[in-house]
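INTERNAL AUDIT FORM
Audit reference: QA-55
Scope: verify that the stored structure record matches its stored sequence.
Auditor: D.O.
Record contents follow.
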Amino acid sequence: MNPLLNGLNEAQKAAVASPASVLQVLAPPGSGKTKTLTARVAYLIGPKEIKPSNVIVCTFTVKAAREMKDRIRSLVGDGLEAQLIMGTFHSVARRFLVSYGHHINISKNFGIADSSDSLAILRRIIKRRSLNIEPSVARSRISGLKAKNIRSDEYSRTAKSVEKQEFSMLYEEYEDTLRSSNLLDYDDLLLNCVELLRRHPECVANIEAVLIDEFQDTNKVQFELMSLFAQKKKAITIVGDPDQSIYGFRSAEIRNLHKMKNLYPETTVVILEENYRSSGSILLAAMDIIEQDQSRPAKRLLSTHCIGERPVLRRVPSSAAEAKWITTEIQRCKALTGGDLFQNSDFVILLRSASLSRHIEFAFGKAGVPYRMVGGHRFFDRVEIKILLDYLRVISQPSHNDALVRIINVPARKIGEATVKGLLEEAECEQWTMWNLVLAIAQGRRRPKTKLTAQAERGLESFCNLILTSQAKLAEEDSDIMALVTHVLKKLSFEKYLRDSYGEDFDSRWANVREIIAQATDLATAVARGEDWNEDDLPTIDAIDQQPHSSAQDVLAKFLANVALTTEVEKNEEDGNADKVTISTIHAAKGLEWPVVFIPGAYEGSIPHSRAEDWDEERRLLYVGMTRAQSLLYLSCPVKNSVEDQTTLSPFVSPSQTQDMFDIKGPLFSFTVAQDLARILRRKCPPESAMLAGRDLVERTEDDYWPLDGEAP
């Protein structure tokens, strides 16, 4: 047997070694989908001898791409994984646009407008036009249209009402602003790649296999992109689970699985049925809930573990009481299993909405339970890093108006907010970029309409001098990104600026800057050694020319693009390894697992959410939350919510046959229970003596403080 198939069950083996050109692998939670997809990639570039550079693998997160690449490296070695065209849909699309975008009039040095850039552009247009729409709503609406491949010109043709005509104007101006700034937003990366591959299919003439992870999360444009990637050989493998389609608000199309079968009638389907994560009783409850959706394809999900403790569905008097109950249950669980079986980091609180965390955070703080909120400040969102990155953006791409506006007076150059606003309006009225305007003013080639003080004029000259000298530095023959970063920091006196502005936490902020310097150093070293640092490289194809991208300017552009495309930046090790309870939304927890899961707020209006239009998706969301649990699962419902309104139990757990799957209070934690928990988690069971000693550490050994009917004690 091929060694790549070692350790796989029969369904996984069938998926990995399938001779089918078009393959759907339906992978429920905990069924080993990543292991299967990774082995499939390794099988194609190993025994099937497909060149790695002719294989595209698309994931939905940077983290997933990294993990897959590491696993493939361990399976095939020889650096073959580095030759794969692998990453998120957006990063793969960007690679094709960098190499071939000039064929559709996109220059290789385009910038990427991140979410804050897009919002800033929309905010300015809305204010200038006196439109009655929230910028965040407009951005979501534009993104939704682009996800359906509806451009601004197409939308304008169907805009009949006054409201739609106003929005059409906003959409068109937004697109014009991006174009004039040489920017693409995230959706544009996909749309323009679709246009490129439609008009120039020779760009992917070499592609022999396309593999897509989390296929149920794809939207209309991503589906088309998949088909275009595979247009030569029509060899596609997707891994997905319709029961975990929870991103409708991002325009994900659950119908894409059916659409794929219609487009490729020869599609072979392999279903993975064995679950390696959760206890039998957790799976039984989760399956009972998801099977309430009669329209879903029937699938089994079999646990490889023992039946374990039944999940808990607990009624409590209020949201505040619910938070206290969760706190005491965590303490009881740890103490009564001997203190060693569970750590704080084994517990997660999964919320339908982040707004539900207030009472839980308060209760944890009062009880001294350490916790972390998923989605804290990411590295590249920290103020000192954003300032430095904006300088690099303007150096790389002076037409980036929003980046320029953010830094033109940082550190202070006596250029006030009103002056900056006036200059920006002047530039937009003249259809100039902000950079062209301030440079012309600084060089005496233009008299500004905006009134400038003598100090502001000197500030503009200082700013322009910094950008121009930095660009000259970058253009030097032996220049690299490290030299550029060092030059910018020195010209800004950035260390002094941070010390003066943020004295109390200067050390941590400067440490972050040093981390950027280290990244620049690593990149410069890799380039100097001629290492394969440049993942933008695509295989050369005779029928169509690529643009070269190996200069220092290209390295900087790639560095900035990586920042824009990195949606998951890992926290520093100290925080990542800390023993803390996790509080997260269910959406953010997809793909993860914990030994013990709490899902509070199991009432109508919370889950399903009061504003939800698709109850089937809300049911899938609860299913995803429940199937994050390995050994213990708790759902809870307060009789009154946080604003003291009476609640109704969620319809997903209210049927009597569903309630029969749950216990009405937390487990007793006998020695037999502890043995089962340890077996599921593959951990050492604590001695019975330690469990008995733990009884002295808690006020109550049973979950009996709040009456079972949810009334106040």
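Auditor finding: record pair retrieved intact. Residues 567-576 have pLDDT under 50 and may be disordered.
Action required: none
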